[in-house]
Structure formats: C-alpha cells, structure tokens
Design a protein that fits this description.
By secondary structure, the protein is α/β, with parallel strands linked by helices. It is built from nine helices and seven strands. It has a single domain, classed as NAD(P)-binding Rossmann-like Domain (Rossmann fold), CATH 3.40.50. The longest helix has 26 residues. Bound molecules: NADP nicotinamide-adenine-dinucleotide phosphate (NAP).
C-alpha cells in the first residue's frame, strides 16, 4: 500500500492511546486512511500517524475534546479537507473516574462522565451520519454519500454495573449500548451499520487514570481466561465490525471479555 492508496477514511476518537491506538494501526493495515483524534496527548497521536505513514498508509492527527460540540464540528471539517471521504467512525474516546459510591458523586463528576462518554458519541455520530448516509436529504444535505459503519466502544461494566466503583461509568456505557441499538435501526435503510464492542478488562492506561494502576492484577482471579485482554484483541473485533465481512451485522454488541 502507498500513501495515496486509501480511498476511504475512518475516524478513531481517542486514537492515540490504548484501544484507540491499536484500532488506528489495524485500520491502516487494512487499507483505511485514519483520522487519529486526541484531546490532550498530541505526541501519542502523532506517533500513531508516524507509524502509519512509515508503513505506507495515510493518517492525520486531529485534536478535539469530543464533549465539545464546536470542536467536534471543526474536527470533521478538518478531516474533510485532508483525507478521503469518511466511511467509518469508531467512538472509542472514554474516561473513568476514581472509585466512588453513587451518594458521593458530584454534579461535576457526572457531567464530565456523560459529556465525554455519551454526548461525545452522539456529536461524532451526527457529523459522521451527515457524511455517510445514502439519503442525505434526511439530514438536510445534498450530494451522494457511499454509506459506512459506526462502531461504539461500550464496556462489560454496562452489564455488571460496577457497584462501589463507578456506577456512573457503567450507566454511561449502558446508554451507549441503547444508542447503538436505536441508531442501528434508524440508519439500517441508509447504508450505515451501527454496532458496539463490549470489552472486559483490557491492559491499557485507563486503570491508572481511575486510581487503580494494579486493577488488572487485582481482577485476575475473577477472569475466566486468567488473563486480561490486549488492546489489539479489541481492535480486531472493532475492525471486523467496520469491515464488509460484517455487511449483514448491525445493532449487535460484540463481547470481547474473555468470557467474563
Ligand atoms: P486509555 O488508554 O485511557 O485511552 C483513552 C483515550 O481516550 C485517549 O486516547 C484519550 O485521548 C481519549 N480521550 C479521553 N477523553 C477524551 C475527550 N474528551 N476527547 C477526545 N478524546 C478523549 O483508555 P482505553 O482503555 O484505551 O479505553 C478506550 C475505550 O475503551 C474507552 O471508551 C473505555 O471506556 C473503553 N473500555 C476500556 C476497557 C479497559 O479495560 N481498558 C474496558 C472496557 C471498555 P488523549 O490521548 O488525548 O488523552
């Protein structure tokens, strides 16, 4: 593949680190041009872009806080200018917070949790739909689009509830699963498939950001395979759902939990 070969673009939110990084790299290996979104860590996103370009692929690092609607709109406009037409969106950007009981959760904590993990996915989906729907008149836009695929990143927390730890995060991921089911039906006749992955315990930096850097080791006895998953294992599921191999799959939530 050469830098000019990619004819369609996927946006991976939070594409510079963890599951997003692995997804960006695998998408590039499968021939996608990749928009690598980040919020704070420009160096991580740029290193993903450099790795993709070194492999002959095409990529762009784009900063936007997905919780900020205007930044999301500007990000999509920048992608339009620099890369081939958008045909994929991976709503991966997400945060946890420190362990807390529900009765101790502040409004500021809840606002951040739902703004990034839920509203951000809605904002990005809105922009992606406008660029991908084969019925652009439905969005008030003219012109022909070629369809596409959206993959949302949920969590096993959505089914487990994360009691005593982060019920707010679990509830936000529950919202993402319902969003996936509804949006899949809404767009099924418009050439856009919508699915989600539900990762279990995956080795990334997110556990340290939730105040438990040793969470993987703590959880080990509870994991049926007696190991955590890797970001690459989640990326494989995401890229499958993005691909034509999943052409009749929409509205599904794919477990990547090692049986948990
Ligand atoms: P991570 O290593 O902590 O990476 C999080 C990524 O999200 C970073 O690239 C970060 O960007 C980005 N991000 C955070 N806030 C953002 C914002 N406001 N706008 C744009 N980007 C933002 O996390 P991860 O483990 O790879 O998690 C990725 C997804 O998988 C999340 O949705 C998470 O909930 C989900 N998940 C993870 C696990 C797990 O065990 N790791 C399990 C289930 C689900 P910067 O680099 O700029 O900070």
């Amino acid at each position: 593949m050469t830098n000019e070969a990619a004819t369609r673009t996927v946006l991976v939110t939070g594409g510079g680190r963890g599951i997003g990084r692995a997804t960006s790299l695998l998408c590039a290996a499968r021939g996608w041009a990749v928009a690598v979104n980040y919020a704070h860590d420009a160096a991580a996103a740029e290193s993903v872009v450099a790795a993709i370009e070194a492999g002959g692929g095409r990529a762009l690092a784009v900063r936007a806080d997905v919780a900020r609607d205007a930044e999301v709109s500007a990000m999509f406009a920048a992608i339009d200018r620099a890369l081939p037409p958008l045909a994929g969106l991976v709503n991966n950007a997400g945060v946890v917070d420190l362990g807390s009981r529900v009765d101790a959760m502040t409004p500021a904590r809840l606002e951040r949790m739902f703004a990034i993990n839920v509203y951000g996915s809605f904002y990005c989906a809105r922009e992606a739909i406008r660029r991908m729907t084969t019925k652009p008149a439905a969005t008030g836009r003219a012109g022909a689009n070629a369809g596409g695929a959206i993959v949302n990143v949920s969590s096993a927390a959505a089914k487990l509830g994360a009691p005593g730890q982060y019920v707010d995060y679990a509830a936000a991921k529950g919202a993402i699963e319902t969003f996936t089911l509804g949006l899949a039906k809404e767009l099924a006749g418009e050439g856009i498939r919508v699915n989600a992955v539900r990762p279990g315990i995956i080795e990334t930096e997110i556990h340290a950001s939730g105040g438990t850097p040793d969470r993987v080791a703590q959880m080990l006895p509870l994991l049926p395979m007696q190991r955590a998953g890797s970001a690459e294992e989640v990326a494989e599921a995401i890229v499958f759902l993005l691909s034509e191999a999943a052409s009749y799959t929409t509205g599904s939530i794919l477990e990547v939990t090692g049986g948990r």
